[in-house]
Amino acid sequence: MAKARAGRDVVKVGLTQMACGDEPTVNLRRQMRLVEQAADEGAKIVCTQELFCSRYFCQSEEHGNFALAETIPGPSTEALGKIARKRGIVVIASLFERRARGLYHNTAAIIRTDGSVQGIYRKMHIPDDPLYYEKFYFTPGDSGFRAWDTPHGRIGVLICWDQWFPEAARLTALQGAEILFYPTAIGWHAAEKQQYGQAQHDSWELMQRSHAVANGCFVCAANRVGVEGGIEFWGQSFVAGPDGQVMRRASADREEVLVAECDLRRVEFSRTHWPFLRDRRIDAYGGLTRRFGDGT
User: Fold this and answer.
1) CATH number assigned to the domain comprising residue 108
2) Of 56, 179, 199, 252, which sits most exposed with the smallest number of CB within 10 A?
3) Model confidence at 294: pLDDT above 80
């Protein structure tokens, strides 16, 4: 492989994972410290875990939790924007967005190196499972699948439940994304961990590694840690290369900053040696827009 050119061929990405408490301002300060730490370790793009400003409130349906939401731009993007501007980094911040009265989203803000909000991605797939009652809080995203050019590479952002859908990864990669970021909050139900825990974690990681292979890009998942209510978040944030191999993986139970070096030339290498994008049969995929294979 040719010698790296100056500029954005090789970029360090940073993922932060932490346990969250009851006080949003304390959580924000801790997140800011971790972002600074990632920058100290050379990260040029830093991604937070999902909804870092609060405990994972979707375990119950409580109207009072809507008070946790904020506007974008708002207090958190302003605080993290100052760090982005000072350190010359891109920050992906996962927030509970108050878009309007009665209209709320699970949103990632992409903060550029000058501290401003470059764009947002609103979570498209909203789960409704035991202890993950997100449909009560979040309106499905309407921002579409997007990618953004940054000084450190072209990136795409998806959020947690989105990571189970190959369509979301593919459509984002087709926007030219070289790195996919997934802010995440996923863990075990206490009663299920012994029987299903390892398989659940392996499925989660395997699914995202498959996105890396199928799309010839880097995949970065930032997950939280700690026990909140009935969920034990499993951490293990990771970065996978275009070949699907895990390059770095964080611990299961500790606050941590994970920094990994991504050589973006591997994207072109992967996409020309495994030309899945070339060989797609776009003329034959109309059935993907149907709910099921019976034509309805």
Assistant:
1) 3.60.110.10
2) 199
3) no
